Amino acid sequence: MIKVNRLSKAFGKNEVLQSIDLSVEKGEVVVILGPSGSGKTTLLRCINFLEKPNGGEITIGDHTVNCKRPSKLDIHILRRKTAMVFQHYNLFKHKTALENVMEGLIIVQKLSKEKAKEISVQMLEKVGLGSKLDAYPSRLSGGQQQRVGIARALALNPEVILFDEPTSSLDPELVGEVLSVIRKIAREGITMIVVTHEMGFARDVANHVVFMEGGVIVEEGKPSEIFYAPKEERTKQFLSRIT
Ligand code: ADP
């Protein structure tokens, strides 16, 4: 479903991703863990070319892109196959919840306004915001704004949703509602790659856990392997610090 081969990315001399290989099966939830600065966000952003990788290959579904020489069409196709949920929600402040979700469907997918509205209402209902369609972001809590962000990603019907620390800007009491929405859509079989520091969530939702440090994948495996029987010293140290 998704294959990343020898992906590399540097900012100047800082080699942030060093030959990353990653495979994600259809319907899988992959959680990426690691200390701050290890390259997790950059990896997600390279998968949809929000950052341009320096080398390697990315395959999503039936489309493979050579990262050194991507065409405009390659980038367009990868972006159509992915959707991202951002740490800071990235909603349009002057648009309502409904308009925020409709935007991509109208502008990118060229759906009619009626069809875009129908899908957007369904998705906002799915994340528990059926009563907030006309609310502006400033009238919504952080957790509600992030749920709009999730509805917006779902509406695009992507092959994979990339979650970049979706709960790390939330007050602790709002984290649960967002994680439960992510859990619910994970159960529906949507393929996801999730960067998070929420270990409890990673343990129950992930099919596969990847531990990154210093721009490399140090260790990966099933949650039971990574959390309860990590092999690498660096993984053990990381987990002992945060769990
Ligand atoms: P993580 O998500 O694991 O915290 P990041 O992918 O955000 O790590 O960052 C990895 C490294 O890349 C850090 O050293 C960070 O300073 C650097 N970095 C990230 N984005 C940029 C950028 N746009 N320009 C320069 N350096 C960056």
UniProtKB/TrEMBL annotation:
Residues 2-239 form the ABC transporter domain. Gene3D superfamilies: P-loop containing nucleotide triphosphate hydrolases. Its EC number is 3.6.3.-. The keyword Cell membrane applies. It is an enzyme of class 3 (hydrolase). The keyword Transmembrane helix does not apply. It holds the Pfam family ABC_tran. Keywords: ATP-binding, Cell membrane, Hydrolase, Membrane, Nucleotide-binding, Transport. It is found in: Cell membrane. It is a peripheral membrane protein. One of its GO terms (molecular function) is hydrolase activity. It comes from the Bacteria. PANTHER family: AMINO ACID IMPORT ATP-BINDING PROTEIN, L-CYSTINE IMPORT ATP-BINDING PROTEIN TCYN. This is L-cystine transport system ATP-binding protein. It comes from Paenibacillus eucommiae.
